[in-house]
Design goal:
The protein has helices at residues 6-14, 37-42, 79-91, 110-117, 121-127, 137-153, 155-158, 191-194, 202-226, 265-270, 324-334, 361-367, 369-384, 397-402, 408-423, and strands spanning 31-32, 45-50, 55-60, 63-64, 68-73, 99-103, 128-131, 159-165, 171-175, 178-183, 228-238, 259-261, 273-283, 293-302, 311-317, 321-322, 338-341, 344-347. The chain has 424 residues and is an alpha/beta fold. Strand 8 and strand 9 (171-175) form a beta hairpin. The longest helix is centred in the middle third of the chain and has 25 residues, at 202-226.
């Protein structure tokens, strides 16, 4: 043996193969913030860069490049609203980035899109391509493929330096992100069934699920390669097939008994991130924040960066969408970084800052520089506790304690190996 590892030999071998796909190795993920920092940190992770000249960590927050994101919930909880706001935030810093929106349900008007994305006129026309008719499973796939092909055929025009490093200390380059929105998966049908003169009932539903499965199997690899973030809306509905006399396991672990999702089972399997929205508390204009809306719980149903079941509450203003500042305030209240004193609020560890109310919070944030500085300082500490690493308050105490406990597996394996050595 000359000390050359099998991995090194393998890499040298595939360099001689004509098929470039054989040489490809997984690249370091890059995450894109949605603008809702509580959620972004909740779903974030820490990257450790270590090389001969580097040894440091940085927080990577938001949504992973080239991933499929399913946003699920009951009707009216803010699924499409959140997606549009997040999509606009993701593409905003990039000159070639844009949003493609297949609004199969046709449930959101132009003026609402402009309010939620903060894009108007020429900018909106340049960076937002929407259709609300003629959407089929087949042409949805074709449009994603066209985007993929355009970006892959001319990488130089779309590639950028992220300014980040991978775990080996090498600079990360990515294609600028593209966001594709499918609203909703339950309404996506094969071409032939849209043209039927009569309803086919269950046969059409089964065929649609099979077609969708085929479409998403082929789309997933293209998303990662071309950095296309696909947001899919899916409605939680009542499982009408459930027998009240027989308990049945939910379709997925992030669903409750009696709930189901449309679009076929495979869609749930291949999605990289599942975000569940539950609008639990209504807000009135005469109380609290002084807005008409709701407090919506965002729960991570499935993620590559966050343990399943973690959740955070956000403030949904019916007039203008999810409020970033109020959502951050709500999170800081719930975790003790903003303390409630009767009708007033105060920042933790900042007795020099005058108290404020829910209604005056944004005014203070806009006009009081001292308050801004103190709030930012407190928010950074609070958000750091959300990132997924040992020691933070989203990790169970039992999990933290495990790190300091006696490693029984290692001890047993040592004994087993000693016994085998005696036999040999």
């Amino acid at each position: 043996m000359n000390g050359v590892s099998l991995a090194e030999r393998f890499r040298e071998k595939v360099k001689t193969v004509k098929d470039y796909r054989m040489k490809f190795e997984a690249e370091q993920d890059v995450m894109y913030p949605t603008g809702f920092l509580g959620f972004d940190y909740l779903n974030g992770t820490t990257v450790h860069v270590k090389s001969d000249t580097m040894d440091f960590t940085y927080n990577s927050i938001g949504i992973i490049d080239g991933s499929m994101v399913s946003v699920i919930g009951r009707t009216g909880c803010g699924k499409t609203t959140f997606i549009l706001q997040a999509a606009a935030e993701i593409i905003r810093p990039y000159s070639t980035a844009c949003i493609y929106h297949d609004d199969v349900e046709g449930g959101i008007v132009q003026s609402r899109k402009e309010i939620l994305t903060h894009m108007h006129g020429e900018e909106f026309a340049k960076r937002y391509i929407s259709r609300n008719a003629g959407v089929t499973a087949e042409n949805f796939f074709e449009r994603v493929k066209i985007i993929h092909d355009l970006k892959m055929e001319d990488r130089e025009s779309f590639e950028y330096d992220t300014g980040l490093f991978d775990y080996k200390g090498e600079r990360i380059f990515k294609l600028e992100p593209t966001v594709y929105i499918l609203d909703s998966i339950a309404m996506l049908m094969p071409e032939k069934y849209l043209e039927e003169e009569e309803l086919s009932g269950q046969m059409s539903a089964t065929a649609a699920a099979k077609t969708n499965s085929s479409v998403f199997k082929r789309i997933i690899p293209m998303l990662k390669a071309a950095n296309i973030i696909l947001f899919v809306v899916n409605h939680i509905t009542e499982d009408v097939s459930i027998n009240p006399m027989q308990r049945k396991k939910p379709q997925a672990p992030y669903l409750k008994m009696g709930e189901t999702l449309g679009g076929g089972r495979l869609v749930n399997y291949v999605t990289n991130l599942v975000i569940r929205l539950d609008d639990n508390t209504k807000l009135k204009e005469t109380e609290g924040y002084g807005i008409r809306g709701s407090i919506v719980e965002f729960t991570i149903g499935k993620s590559r960066t966050c343990p399943m079941g973690r959740s955070i509450n956000m403030i949904f203003n019916f007039a203008c969408g999810f409020d970033r500042e109020l959502s951050l305030l709500q999170f800081m209240k719930e975790y003790g970084y903003v303390i409630t004193k009767g009708a007033y609020l105060k920042l933790k560890d900042h007795d020099e800052i005058k108290m404020f109310t829910h209604k005056t919070f944004k005014e203070r944030l806009n006009e009081d520089e001292e308050f801004q500085k103190a709030f930012i300082e407190t928010a950074m500490v609070a958000l750091e506790g959300l990132i997924n690493k040992p020691g933070n308050y989203f990790y169970d105490e039992e999990v933290q304690e495990e790190e300091n406990k006696f490693d029984i597996t290692a001890a047993l394996m040592s004994n087993i190996n000693q016994q085998l050595a005696k036999v040999a």
